[in-house]
């Protein structure tokens, strides 16, 4: 109905333009929205107020012209002009049954649209440093990003899903050195493991793999590399200085080729583990992009040259700086340090330039909430590169807190004390994890109740929605009727007249607009809330004693089977967008 009303308003505008009552060069961008207050109709549109200035007439006068030029439509009962010029649409309730024919005809494509079919969007998400397994915090970004990708594809976007692999820089040196130190311990060397090294058991596993293959080939006794090391934090020193000194020793003692053996084994092991974890979580990528390739393919230099050509760099104290203040940042940023090494920021600029060079109309970076301070500078860089900064969206995903038995679980990545995404998936299942992760707005903190996620009760939202789908399948089995039975497909919609049936019909009709809204707002929770409302409406319908589906009245029986069949289709389509299964039995 929302689409029909939008088309009707567009037709009215075209009619007025054809008779020269409205100018031809109007900039039109409007939406028909569902009214929150039924006293104001079923749908509302503020197009008259949007176009009044361009049309050089009062909003209410324009509204009257629009109403008088709306095409005849049996779905529209009446249109009222409210306030300064709102168009309030009232639709005929007795026509809602027509939606069943649309749902059954379109089946799995119901809810999809081609509104943005000429647009290309790239979504970069998770992109966790390959320095350890994915934990539950990464899981929320993964579920959110994958669902956003599904939603945008559902409304016509050509979507590319990308993972940016941070396989260069200091954190990789810390990882490599951490593996080497554990390897030395496997060679029976004894020393105090650095505070700032990676502590998790996965470091032991990688080291053991190398030790099995190379035995003691890379052994350097403790006294060879401990000499003259600055003190670590427990001894009153600086943990950062301490680990950097060990990294330098490791590179010197191992040499470039042997050091690379440790680095490659660590990176490959963890990256492959991340790929496996995400695949089992239902998250697939079209591209894995290496940060290191930005250097080897000279893309960093290309980006710096572009900024310099555009007049947005300067040199100071031996370093190259970006004039970030000119674009709203709080201070200018270093691109190349005085030692000649480029910064992470320079790599990020190069990465974004390459994205635009690949021809995307829109970029979406899904970052953790701790990256909030980074948004302004990266948007400043995008603008300095000559791109439209509004084409880059950066939703920030808040942290997820795990609760079990009413108690919050404490996690720390560097110390190795965290719940991995794999552990979470095994404990609650992929479906519950995916559903719970997108159940709240992404900018809100999420309290993930493990006990609730595994419970089989109506309090568990994913169970409640899935159970509605399974229950409908069971009803068809009991009725011994196929869902595509001609008697179901051609059933008389007018048989559906009570309030529970009307509630379901209205909700079914709303599904496409919720999908579109969820995609445009990058808000999967809109679809989640819709599915919960639909499941609740179905269970309420089913539990009402007067709504027996397998009625002795055959016309009513087939009409209700048609109604719940359409409900099943929409439940399936909605769950599919979330990559949550729709079981036939529970």
Q: Could you please describe the fold and organization of this structure?
A:
By secondary structure, the protein is α/β, with parallel strands linked by helices. Among the domains are: 2-91, 2-Layer Sandwich (Gyrase A, domain 2); 98-117 and 459-577, Isoleucyl-tRNA Synthetase, Domain 1 (Orthogonal Bundle), CATH 1.10.730; 170-280, no CATH class. Helices cover 49% and strands 12% of the residues. The chain has 21 helices and 17 strands. The protein has helices spanning 2-18, 47-55, 59-68, 98-106, 136-154, 170-186, 201-214, 222-225, 239-280, 291-296, 299-309, 344-357, 375-384, 421-428, 430-437, 450-453, 461-479, 486-489, 499-520, 525-543, 554-577; strands spanning 32-34, 43-45, 76-82, 86-91, 120-124, 158-165, 287-290, 313-316, 319-322, 333-336, 362-365, 367-368, 392-393, 396-397, 400-404, 407-408, 446-449. The chain has a five-stranded parallel beta sheet. The radius of gyration is 30 Å and the shape is flat. The protein starts with a helix and ends in a 9-residue tail after the last helix. The model has no long low-confidence stretch (mean pLDDT 93).
């Amino acid at each position: 109905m929302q689409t029909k009303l939008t088309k009707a308003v567009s037709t009215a505008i075209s009619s007025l333009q054809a008779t020269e009552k409205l100018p031809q060069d109007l900039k039109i961008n409007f939406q028909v929205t569902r009214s929150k207050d039924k006293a104001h109709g079923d749908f509302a549109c503020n197009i008259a107020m949007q176009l009044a200035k361009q049309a050089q007439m009062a909003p209410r006068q324009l509204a009257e012209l629009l109403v008088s030029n709306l095409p005849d439509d049996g779905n529209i009962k009446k249109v009222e002009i409210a306030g300064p010029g709102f168009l309030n649409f009232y639709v005929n309730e007795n026509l809602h049954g027509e939606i069943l024919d649309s749902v059954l005809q379109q089946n799995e494509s119901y809810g999809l649209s081609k509104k943005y079919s000429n647009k290309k969007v790239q979504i970069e998400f998770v992109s966790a440093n390959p320095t350890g397994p994915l934990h539950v915090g990464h899981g929320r970004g993964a579920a959110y990003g994958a669902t956003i990708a599904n939603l945008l594809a559902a409304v016509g976007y050509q979507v590319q899903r990308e993972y940016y692999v941070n396989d260069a820089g200091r954190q990789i040196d810390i990882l490599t050195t951490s593996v080497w130190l554990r390897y030395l311990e496997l060679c029976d060397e004894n020393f105090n493991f650095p505070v700032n090294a990676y502590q998790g058991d996965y470091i032991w596993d990688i080291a053991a793999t190398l030790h099995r293959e190379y035995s003691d080939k890379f052994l350097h006794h403790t006294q060879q590399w401990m000499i003259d090391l600055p003190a670590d934090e427990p001894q009153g020193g600086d943990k950062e200085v301490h680990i950097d000194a060990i990294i330098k020793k490791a590179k010197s003692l191992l040499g470039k080729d042997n050091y690379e053996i440790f680095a490659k084994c660590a990176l490959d092991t963890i990256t492959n583990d991340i790929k496996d974890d995400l695949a089992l979580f239902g998250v697939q990528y079209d591209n894995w992009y290496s940060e290191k390739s930005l250097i080897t393919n000279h893309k960093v230099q290309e980006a710096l040259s572009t900024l310099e050509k555009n007049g947005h760099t300067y040199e100071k104290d031996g370093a190259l700086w970006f004039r970030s203040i000119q674009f709203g940042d709080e201070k200018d940023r270093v691109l190349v340090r005085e030692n000649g090494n480029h910064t992470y920021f320079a790599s990020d600029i190069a990465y974004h330039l390459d994205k635009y060079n690949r021809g995307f109309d829109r970029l979406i970076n899904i970052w953790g909430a701790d990256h909030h301070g980074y948004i302004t500078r990266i948007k400043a860089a995008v603008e300095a590169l000559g791109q439209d900064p509004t084409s880059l969206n950066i939703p920030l995903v808040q942290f997820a807190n795990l609760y079990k038995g009413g108690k919050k679980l404490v996690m720390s990545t560097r110390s190795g004390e965290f719940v991995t995404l794999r552990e979470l998936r095994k404990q609650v299942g992929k479906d519950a994890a995916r559903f719970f992760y997108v159940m709240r707005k992404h900018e809100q903190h999420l309290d993930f109740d493990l006990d609730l996620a595994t419970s089989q009760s109506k309090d568990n939202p994913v169970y409640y929605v899935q159970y509605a789908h399974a229950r409908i399948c069971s009803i068809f089995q009991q009725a011994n009727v196929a869902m595509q039975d001609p008697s179901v497909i051609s059933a008389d919609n007018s048989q559906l007249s009570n309030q529970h049936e009307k509630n379901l019909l209205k909700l079914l009709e709303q599904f496409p607009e919720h999908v579109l809204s969820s995609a445009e707002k990058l808000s999967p929770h809109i679809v989640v809330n819709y599915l919960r409302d639909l499941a609740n409406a179905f269970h309420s319908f089913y539990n009402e004693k007067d709504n027996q589906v397998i009625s002795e009245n055959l016309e009513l029986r087939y009409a209700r089977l048609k109604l719940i069949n359409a409900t099943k289709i929409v439940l399936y389509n909605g769950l599919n967008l979330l990559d949550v299964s729709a079981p036939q039995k529970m």
